Amino acid sequence: MLKHQIKITINAIKKIKKLLLKKKNFKLKLRIFITGGGCSGFQYGFELEKITKKNDISIIQSGIEIIIDPISIQYLLGGKIDYIENLEGSKFVISNPNAKRTCGCGLSFSI
Hints:
With 111 residues, the protein is α+β, with helices and mostly antiparallel strands. It has a single domain (2-110), classed as HesB-like domain (Hypothetical Protein Aq_1857, Chain: A). It is built from 2 helices and 9 strands, in the order βαββββαββββ. A hairpin with a 2-residue loop joins β6 and β7. The chain starts with 6 loop residues before the first strand and ends with a strand.
């Protein structure tokens, strides 16, 4: 059910698969989390992890797994996870309908 409430683009899936290939470990999962900080109050974090914690929410799509803790998931529902490459660099980007403001770099937001 959650996979329909958080969209993962093809570009994000391809990048996650490349990261797993580089690490030579397809059992790793991409953890997405929200922490306090940044110029707008909250910021996104991304890490590859082996272990899913007891209360984590797991989203499996196209052979990759994304895990999100129960507190972060409430701020991400309805969002879209993408991966972009442009003149500024390359990065995962979250389009978040719950964010009232974002900073200029797009790395932090407020609710």
